[in-house]
# Entry
Amino acid sequence: QVQLEESGGGLVQAGGSLRLACAASGGVFTYYTLGWFRQAPGKEREFVAAISRSGGGTNYADSVKGRFIISRDNARDTVYLQMSYLKPEDTAVYYCAARLGADYGSNLSGYAYWGQGTQVSVSS
# Structure
């Protein structure tokens, strides 16, 4: 089964940018749809973005459309989340997740494999 490890979190000022990375190991990377989710203190975990196995299809939460870009490098077994124009409300722990199959939807319960998360903090 696949293991996931996120990196790239940190503290940034509002309007700034960060790029998160999630490295996968232990599975055939191209078998998996990948997603990013986030969880702010006191709130439920929510969908951010997802990408198809080939990288040709993407799906975004309305709150991040036009600001975040998800991509994947199947040669490096890595998925990325480029975050721009960050807002204080983007502050959360960001999780990488994987699911077998072609569905790159937003349903959290469909993702069976999760990383440990990386903290993103945006100051105003």
